[in-house]
Amino acid sequence: MYISEKEIEVRYAETDQMGVVYHANYVIWLEIGRTQLIQDLGFTYAGLEADGYISPVTNVNINYLSSVKYGETVTVRTWIESHGKLRTTYGYEILHKDGTIASKATSEHVVVKKDNFRPIALKKINPEWDSKYTEIAKENN
């Protein structure tokens, strides 16, 4: 199973008055993990945008299992859960330093043309990237 990992130091600004990470900040961490996975595979999201495409989130699901607090370092683990013609689902785990799972998540994305938001298959704009995602999704299932 191909999994990308990215460590994140919890910053004070990400927490509430109790020193616990505010729930919406997990979505930012998912983006950091997804960006790391893309880079680990030799691609860049910035490159996709430069070519006139974006990949909006169509669904996000986060299960919060235990709180993360200021001063901790967490690891975001990211993988390709599934990859189809138009939709890619990423899987995530956010781990405490001791390896226990703080949260599990998925996010679904489509690739669209930046100028008109029409969906387009990744295979049409970057066959190599599409092939890599397809390969990883098969290995992970």
Describe the structure in your own words.
InterPro entries: 4-hydroxybenzoyl-CoA_TE (IPR050563), HotDog_dom_sf (IPR029069), YbgC/YbaW (IPR006684). It is an enzyme of class 3 (hydrolase). Belongs to the 4-hydroxybenzoyl-CoA thioesterase family. Strand 5 and strand 6 form a beta hairpin. The protein contains four helices and seven strands; from the N terminus they run E-H-H-E-E-E-E-E-E-H-H. The mean pLDDT is 95. It has one domain: Hotdog Thioesterase (Thiol Ester Dehydrase, Chain A), CATH 3.10.129.10. The N and C termini lie close together (8 Å). The protein has 141 residues and is an alpha+beta fold. The chain has a five-stranded antiparallel beta sheet. A two-stranded antiparallel ribbon has the order 2-7.
Report the strand count.
7
Main β-sheet description: 5 strands, antiparallel
Order of helices and strands: EHHEEEEEEHH
Strand content: 25-35%
Count of alpha/pi helices: 4
Query: Low-confidence stretches at least 5 residues in length (pLDDT < 50)?
Result: none
> What percentage of residues falls in helices of 4 or more residues?
25-40%
Distance N terminus to C terminus? 8 Å
Enzyme class: hydrolase
InterPro entries: 4-hydroxybenzoyl-CoA_TE, HotDog_dom_sf, YbgC/YbaW
Protein name: Thioesterase family protein
Keywords: Hydrolase
